[in-house]
Q: What sequence folds into this?
């Protein structure tokens, strides 16, 4: 049963990253979230069990990046696997020089055609702001899925006609190089240094930061911020500023 608007409003006002949504955006997000829960499989494993409002919160987080893109942006995958806490992948990882590492516990994972795997405890931890760097594991994994829409995790999602792919590659590559340089020189970074792993991780980390701490991303990488406003067709910083004025 869809929640009444009081339940939905309370859910949105409890979490800062929904701040400043207009009534129209709030309604659109609610409809998207309900559609998401209807169309995607939510497999709760290892004892995870969300109540109705937690399910709706998870769906609202997953749908925030596609608020202006629509659920079609997720049409290439359908399953979310939810663990109560961190989970350990079954396979060992082999690094670039061939050394085998035993699997480490993870908070989230995305596969090109699904599933998306999440730790509910870490979803809640991120919402509480309990992090060293701005983080939201749900939005991070959803950005991977958007990135993978064309079949590869390469840091470039399906771009609308208005965005020049060459400009995208230039801006994101320059930001990735700058981040790696800062990390190599042990300089402070507002962005999780994990973003330096690859263009795919940079896009996912930039994407979560765009929604969670837009002021930091805009200040640190204005070109990347600008492209993300065009891609997501949202400007979270302008939204927060307008909400504070209003
Ligand atoms: Zn990632």
A:
């Amino acid at each position: 049963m869809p929640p009444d608007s009081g339940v939905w409003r309370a859910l949105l006002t409890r979490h800062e990253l929904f701040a400043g949504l207009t009534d129209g955006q709030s309604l659109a997000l609610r409809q998207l979230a309900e559609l998401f829960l209807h169309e995607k499989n939510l497999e709760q494993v290892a004892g995870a069990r969300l109540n109705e409002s937690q399910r709706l919160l998870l769906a609202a987080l997953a749908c925030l990046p596609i608020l202006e893109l629509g659920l079609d942006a997720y049409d290439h995958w359908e399953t979310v696997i939810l663990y109560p806490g961190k989970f350990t992948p079954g396979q060992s990882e082999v690094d670039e020089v061939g050394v085998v590492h035993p699997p480490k516990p993870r908070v989230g994972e995305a596969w090109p055609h699904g599933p998306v795997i999440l730790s509910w405890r870490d979803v809640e931890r991120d919402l509480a702001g309990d992090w060293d760097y701005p983080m939201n594991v749900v939005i991070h994994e959803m950005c991977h899925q958007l990135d993978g829409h064309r079949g590869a995790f390469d840091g470039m999602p399906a771009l609308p006609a208005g965005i020049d792919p060459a400009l995208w590659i230039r801006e994101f590559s320059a930001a990735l190089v700058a981040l790696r340089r800062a990390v190599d020189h042990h300089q402070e970074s507002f962005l999780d240094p994990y973003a330096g792993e690859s263009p795919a991780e940079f896009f996912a980390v930039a994407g979560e930061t765009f929604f969670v701490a837009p002021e930091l991303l805009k200040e640190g990488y204005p070109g990347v911020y600008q492209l993300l406003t065009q891609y997501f067709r949202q400007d979270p910083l302008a939204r927060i500023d307008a909400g504070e004025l209003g």
About this structure: The beta strands are 41-44, 79-83, 93-94, 100-101, 108-110, 116-119. Residues 140, 144, 201, 204 surround zinc ion (CB under 6 Å). The chain has a mean pLDDT of 92.
